[in-house]
Inverse folding.
């Protein structure tokens, strides 16, 4: 069997491993428009400021030799431009065609470009891949004041890293807080304090309307009318699933490539996984893209096993995020803000914990700040729709752990008999 994987990140790597666990013979070809082995996108801000280099193994998801050891053909630096579903081929930008029996689309996302003038000026950057990180790193010598557009995970981390390098940073965010879908107001305040402590200027409830300059950006104009003198801009307003190939091939697409419980698209020989896939969110009860690494890994594995003819269901996932900014570390999962769910919360010193429970006593979301050790337990409860009616009153105890569960349940859980 011939298997072609379009994309070369977490979903692809886990798909390769799953295939080779069961099948040592079928050919696997990975196509990527980048010339690098699968690397860690969350480490790109660290790459920009020199805290990690491309020569370090920790920058990559798997060690060198991964593709050779798994007998994978790599076609790197080439872009897939067309899918021929009837002929079961993919066409590359050099005109070459690759045949497949099963195809996995793991082509991730592309940076969202907000509607503003001046995006083509020098000094304006995105940060979604190694090429863009290298470009920003080389340009740092020309930047004394950088405006970061977008206060999400990448934007907040870039702002922190650049500020620590001594660059003046202004972060502009359309919402009333940074990390809007990830933290609530109280949680975001911890991050606000850390960023301000590093010298970052926060401009919330505002957005950029235009960039101005003579060749190089020199001024950032906000919709509020404010003007910021700056010689560097990082646009980090998020990524959108890269659905163009699937859409042109008439696969079923919405916000992402729509898949069933087996990560199969509307074509029986084509599967999708990772940031590009629109799969089931067990917390929200609907299908939507959730661009996080653990889910991409799980989806890649499920898709691969099903390409081999196994009936393995993807049980769904939910948003999970973790980050450290300054001295504040947090983990959040599921729904973090709601007026309809029962809310249990406590704020004590530099710690904050919040849990959201539905009317059926199922944990739907959480925020843990600076007390994150038990995050795995809560994620398990969300994933398994565990009845927390008898235990939720202990969630706010600082020493919460398995000791609060009855002995019989602990034995079963720790023996992995409950899944």
């Amino acid at each position: 069997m011939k298997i072609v994987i379009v994309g070369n990140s977490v979903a692809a790597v886990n798909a390769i491993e799953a295939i080779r666990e069961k099948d040592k013979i079928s050919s696997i070809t990975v196509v990527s428009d980048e010339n690098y082995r699968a690397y860690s996108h969350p480490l790109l801000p660290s790459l920009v400021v020199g805290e990690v280099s491309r020569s370090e193994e920790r920058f990559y998801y798997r060690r060198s030799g991964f593709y050779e050891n798994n007998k994978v053909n790599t076609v790197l630096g080439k872009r897939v431009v067309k899918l021929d579903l009837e002929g079961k081929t993919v066409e590359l930008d050099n005109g070459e065609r690759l045949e497949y029996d099963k195809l996995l689309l793991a082509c991730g996302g592309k940076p969202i470009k907000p509607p503003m003038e001046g995006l083509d000026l020098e000094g304006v950057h995105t940060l979604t891949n190694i090429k863009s990180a290298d470009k920003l790193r080389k340009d740092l010598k020309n930047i004394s004041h950088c405006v970061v557009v977008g206060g999400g995970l990448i934007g907040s981390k870039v702002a922190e890293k650049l500020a620590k390098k001594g660059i003046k940073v202004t972060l502009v965010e359309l919402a009333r807080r940074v990390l809007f879908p990830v933290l609530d107001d109280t949680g975001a305040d911890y991050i606000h304090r850390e960023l301000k402590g590093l010298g970052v200027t926060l401009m919330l409830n505002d957005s950029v309307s235009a960039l101005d300059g003579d060749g190089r950006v020199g001024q950032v104009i906000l919709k509020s009318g404010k003007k910021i003198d700056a010689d560097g801009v990082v646009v980090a307003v998020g990524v959108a699933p890269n659905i163009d190939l699937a859409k042109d091939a008439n696969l079923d697409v919405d916000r992402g490539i729509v898949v069933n419980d087996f990560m199969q698209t509307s074509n029986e020989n084509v599967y999708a996984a990772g940031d590009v896939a629109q799969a089931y969110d067990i917390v929200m009860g609907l299908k939507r893209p959730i661009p996080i690494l653990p889910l991409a890994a799980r989806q890649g594995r499920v898709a691969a096993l099903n390409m081999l003819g196994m009936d393995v269901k993807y049980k769904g996932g939910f948003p999970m995020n973790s980050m450290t900014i300054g001295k504040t570390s947090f983990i959040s999962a599921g729904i973090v803000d709601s007026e309809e769910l029962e809310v249990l919360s406590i704020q004590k010193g530099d710690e904050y914990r919040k849990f959201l429970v539905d009317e059926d006593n199922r944990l739907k979301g959480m925020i843990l700040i600076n007390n994150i050790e038990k995050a795995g337990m809560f994620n398990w409860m969300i994933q398994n729709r565990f009845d927390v009616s008898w235990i939720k009153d202990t969630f706010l105890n600082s020493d919460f752990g398995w000791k609060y569960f009855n002995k019989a349940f602990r034995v079963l859980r720790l023996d992995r008999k409950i899944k």
Remarks:
- The first helix runs from residue 10 to 22.
- The chain is about 20% helix and 30% strand.
- The two ends are 33 Å apart (CA to CA).
